[in-house]
Amino acid sequence: MGTVPGPDGLPRCGWCGEISEFFPYHDNEWGFPVDDDIRLFEKLCLESFQSGLSWRTILAKRENFRAAFAHFDFNRVAQFDEADIERLLADAGIVRHRGKIEAVINNARRACELVEREGSLAAYFWQFEPDERDLPAPQTQSTSEASIALSKELKKQGWKFVGPTTVYAFMQAMGLINDHLDDCVYRAKVAEARKAFKRPVKAR
């Protein structure tokens, strides 16, 4: 898929053309580096909910997800119990899939453990940033060596619904790679943001 003209007439990644709501998400979020643990946890959870669905569905429900899951504060979500699961299963504003709901709660607990070991989710996830010289052409694959490695490590720690494709989409969105098309006007903007970004490191 090539580029499509954005609201300003400049080229954007072709997937933006599916719905107009994709343009602000693409222009303001997708690919820009993130070091905020709550945002990182939210995105990984939403990508797991997307499994088998479209990002269009998830993006439309994102505010509902945030309200339902304590704005993805994993310290709070880790305390959710069976009553919360039943509440979420009755919430028509989100994707009511028991396995995925239970996975978010499980993953919140695993996130708390990871932060205790590594200092932050950001410090851990950014260890898996690949060398740009090893990356293929943008948007030509759905997994990578880095996403396979991160997926494997998360599963080993007990995380759920974090397959290599889900993790790759997470890495694309959170800026661990710049997967904007070469002709997309935002590729250069993301490259500059990544250049200025201070990579988080594990707390000593």
Description:
There is one protein chain. A two-stranded antiparallel sheet has the order 1-2. It has helices spanning 22-28, 37-50, 55-60, 62-68, 74-77, 82-89, 98-118, 121-125, 145-156, 164-173, 185-196, and strands at residues 3-5, 11-13. By secondary structure, the chain is mainly α. The model has no long low-confidence stretch (mean pLDDT 96). It has a single domain (35-125, 139-196), classed as Hypothetical protein, domain 2 (Endonuclease III, domain 1), CATH 1.10.340. A hairpin with a 5-residue loop joins strand 1 (3-5) and strand 2. The chain has 11 helices and 2 strands, in the order ββααααααααααα. The chain is globular.
Strand adjacency order, main sheet:
1-2
By CATH, the topology is Endonuclease III, domain 1
- What is the β-strand count? 2
User: Sheet with the most strands?
Assistant: 2 strands, antiparallel
Alpha carbon gap, first and last residue? 44 Å
Class based on secondary structure composition and strand pairing? mainly alpha
- The whole-number mean of residue pLDDT values reads 96
What best-fitting shape do the alpha-carbon axes yield?
globular
Radius of gyration: 17 Å
How many individual domains?
1
CATH class: Mainly Alpha
Topology as a string of helices (H) and strands (E):
EEHHHHHHHHHHH
Question: In CATH, what is the homologous superfamily?
Answer: Hypothetical protein, domain 2
